[in-house]
Structure to design on (796 residues):
């Protein structure tokens, strides 16, 4: 037991030796002494490296202890310092630290001394700074006063220059001086010199008025010599006047001078407009007018408009007989006549002068703008007074729309400039327009549905124009909607157009409800002319709305409705439906078309049901013939079964009647639906209800292929394709005996194999054998039933 004890003691000594230098070197390092886990990890790593997991290697611990003690002694000699032995690196670092500390203290003392001197200097210089600031303030004030006086002197010099130029008839120089005043006025807008600016504005307005009045007087004299304004169409004279060249020169000179005066005139006009609207006179200069504000009229055109404006106000204001609310066409037509009469003069006399002066405006457009301002004021005044008179209001709207059409079309007034339509978009006027439009449309609907010829077509005697066979009421209604469209098509606001589109959809739905009510009254006799006329009306409206859905105008409205989110037009559609509209996959009329198609389907079904009810009564005697006992006959001697004659006559008469009263597309649906129903009735009532001899099968095939199918051959090339059950039944009943036996055996074997678990591999399906015989519609089980209806089997 002595050896283990010695080993343990040696291990403890070894541990102390390992930890001693670490603890001694970490007395000044708080982070290392605090991390006890690091010491333990170091000890474990060392023991693992030197000793390992072999217990026999513990005998080397003593040697390891001695080695570590020697290393510890070497480290102590290197670290521990005394007076006689100092490490060179530590000594050098200490010396450098002491020198740096001395330098820092020296710099701090110098900084304190300099700061004290600077503070004292600032205190001594403060009185001088205060005096200098007062002096600079006085200099600044004097400088501003000098600039003020210079500006005032400049204004007086410009005023004197204008006066001198006017005295010497130097109009161009006077206009340039006035332009300089206008530029100076624009520059002073940002300043606070209100009195100076007021003086400048008064001076500018004074001289501008004098120059403008002088030029206006001279310009009016020249215009009088040129017979302006042209109240009546101008008369072309073959002999020129004696002083024509002089008048043309004066005209060009005056127009050019008036154009040069345009800038100051615009400035004064804008300031007058701002003061009338309550805007402060002193405000920053605007680089450009707002987009909604039209630029001022060309100054020469303003003067040319004065006599026309006087005539307009004389005739169409006050107590004049020409000023009547019931005749807006008087002043609208008068303005259009003035525009037309002045066109030649403006294009041949005024426009070349504007072009040579470098103006970018059109003389004709400027004249139209000036006259339009008179009309806009008059229409706005009259429209507000007619809100409670439906008839006069409608008349005003019609005349405004016609005026706008002629102005844009005949006189080429640009679409980017406002006309009169924006006046109709004011809330009160637009709402009144919508209300009156709906009221009059409803009244017309009542009148058209109650008229005597409401359900007859006006083109009934013209076959080429009567494919749709639309009754007069439906055609009148769609014409009414088209007229509404033409009225609001030219409105400049998509949201207003969408309101009218919503009104149209509402009217269509109202008309559909009225048609449904009339249809219910006529449903007791679906074969009558009025019932078919209602069906034609529904089909006609549906066709027209379908065409509108592909129209460019309504597609543009569709995009506008999606972008604006108009609930009145979209009608609460879901996200998917709105997405389809945005991608142009659907149309705004889909909801109405669905309702109309449902009504059309219901009416067509009722019509065919009544037709088939009559035909079915004629089919029953035919199905009760002795098909089993009919002898075989030659084709040349065969005739139509006597019991089939009533049925054939009924089918023929009904087809002719439907062809006469239904539109082409509806008749196509009608005869195809009739053929399908008749095919089922004959198959059930005649074929499956009887057994057939060879002669009976031949007679049935003769009746169908030579008599019934040709009745429908007038409307298609292969009518038998619409009687698949009857046609294939005739084929199977008319097969020769051998083929019938083989086919029946094949079908029986196929069904037995299927019952046992499936057909043998490689065997052709029974359908291929049926297809070879021309049977494609009937199933194998139905074919077996039909084959069993044959009476001519061997041994029977």
């Amino acid at each position: 037991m002595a050896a283990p004890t010695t080993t343990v003691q040696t291990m403890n000594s070894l541990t102390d030796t390992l930890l001693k230098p670490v603890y001694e070197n970490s007395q000044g390092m708080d982070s290392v002494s605090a991390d006890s886990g690091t010491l333990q990890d170091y000890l474990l790593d060392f023991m693992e490296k030197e000793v390992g997991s072999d217990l026999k290697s513990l005998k080397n611990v003593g040697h390891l202890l001695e080695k570590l003690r020697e290393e510890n002694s070497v480290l102590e000699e290197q670290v521990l310092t005394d007076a006689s032995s100092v490490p060179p690196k530590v000594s050098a670092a200490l010396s450098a630290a002491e020198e740096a500390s001395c330098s820092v203290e020296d710099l701090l003392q110098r900084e304190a001394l300099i700061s004290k001197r600077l503070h004292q200097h600032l205190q001594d210089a403060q009185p001088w700074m205060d005096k200098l600031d007062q002096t600079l303030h006085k200099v600044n004030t004097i400088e501003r006063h000098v600039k003020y006086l210079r500006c005032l002197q400049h204004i007086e010099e410009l005023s004197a220059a204008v006066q001198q130029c006017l005295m010497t008839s130097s109009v161009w120089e006077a206009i340039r001086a006035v332009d300089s005043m206008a530029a100076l006025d624009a520059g002073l807008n940002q300043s606070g010199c209100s009195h100076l600016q007021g003086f400048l504005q008064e001076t500018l307005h004074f001289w501008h008025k004098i120059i403008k009045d002088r030029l206006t007087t001279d310009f009016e004299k020249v215009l009088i010599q040129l017979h302006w304004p042209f109240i009546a169409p101008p008369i072309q004279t073959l002999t020129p006047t004696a002083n024509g060249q002089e008048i043309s020169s004066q005209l060009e000179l005056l127009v050019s001078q008036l154009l040069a005066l345009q800038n100051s005139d615009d400035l004064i006009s804008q300031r007058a407009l701002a003061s009338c609207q309550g805007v402060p006179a002193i405000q920053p200069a605007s680089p450009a007018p707002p987009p909604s504000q039209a630029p001022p009229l060309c100054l020469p055109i303003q003067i040319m408009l004065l006599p026309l404006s006087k005539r307009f106000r004389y005739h169409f204001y006050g107590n004049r007989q020409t000023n009547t609310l019931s005749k807006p066409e008087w002043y609208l037509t008068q303005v259009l006549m003035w525009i037309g009469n002045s066109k030649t003069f403006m294009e041949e006399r005024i426009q070349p002068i504007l072009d040579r002066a470098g103006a970018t405006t059109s003389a004709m457009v400027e004249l139209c703008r000036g006259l339009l301002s008179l009309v806009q004021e008059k229409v706005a005044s009259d429209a507000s007074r007619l809100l409670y008179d439906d008839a006069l209001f409608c008349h005003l709207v019609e005349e405004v729309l016609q005026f706008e059409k002629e102005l844009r079309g005949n006189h080429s007034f640009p679409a980017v400039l406002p006309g009169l339509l924006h006046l109709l978009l004011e809330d009160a006027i637009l709402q009144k327009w919508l209300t009156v439009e709906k009221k009059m449309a409803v009244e017309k609907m009542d009148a058209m549905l109650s008229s005597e010829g409401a359900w007859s077509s006006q083109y009934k005697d013209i076959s080429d124009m009567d494919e749709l066979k639309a009754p007069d009421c439906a055609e009148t209604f769609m014409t009414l909607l088209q007229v509404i469209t033409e009225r609001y098509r030219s409105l400049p606001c998509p949201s207003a157009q969408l309101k009218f589109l919503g009104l149209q959809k509402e009217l269509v739905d109202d008309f559909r409800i009225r048609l449904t009510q009339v249809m219910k009254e006529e449903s007791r006799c679906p074969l009558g002319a009025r019932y078919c006329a209602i069906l034609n009306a529904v089909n006609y409206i549906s066709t027209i709305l379908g065409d509108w859905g592909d129209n460019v105008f309504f597609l543009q409205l569709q995009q506008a409705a999606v972008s604006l989110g108009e609930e009145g037009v979209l009608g609460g559609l879901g996200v998917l439906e709105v997405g389809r509209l945005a991608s142009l996959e659907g149309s705004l009329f889909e909801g109405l078309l669905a309702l109309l198609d449902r009504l059309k389907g219901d009416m067509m079904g009722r019509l065919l049901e009544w037709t088939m009810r009559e035909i079915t009564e004629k089919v029953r005697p035919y199905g009760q013939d002795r098909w089993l006992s009919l002898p075989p006959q030659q084709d040349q001697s065969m005739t139509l079964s006597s019991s089939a004659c009533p049925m054939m006559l009924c089918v023929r008469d009904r087809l002719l009647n439907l062809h006469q009263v239904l539109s082409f597309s509806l008749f196509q649906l009608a005869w195809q639906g009739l053929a399908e129903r008749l095919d089922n009735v004959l198959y059930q009532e005649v074929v499956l209800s009887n057994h057939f001899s060879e002669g009976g099968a031949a007679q049935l095939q003769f009746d169908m292929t030579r008599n019934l199918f040709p009745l429908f051959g007038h409307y298609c090339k292969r009518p038998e394709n619409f009687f698949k059950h009857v046609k294939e039944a005739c084929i199977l009943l008319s097969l020769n005996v051998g083929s019938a036996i083989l086919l029946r055996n094949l079908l029986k074997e196929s069904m037995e194999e299927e019952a046992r678990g499936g057909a043998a591999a490689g065997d052709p399906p029974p359908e291929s054998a049926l297809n070879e015989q021309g049977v494609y519609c009937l199933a194998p089980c139905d074919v077996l039933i039909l084959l069993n209806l044959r009476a001519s089997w061997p041994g029977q």
Residues 604 and 669 are 8 Å apart (CA to CA). Residues 88-167 form the longest helix (80 residues).
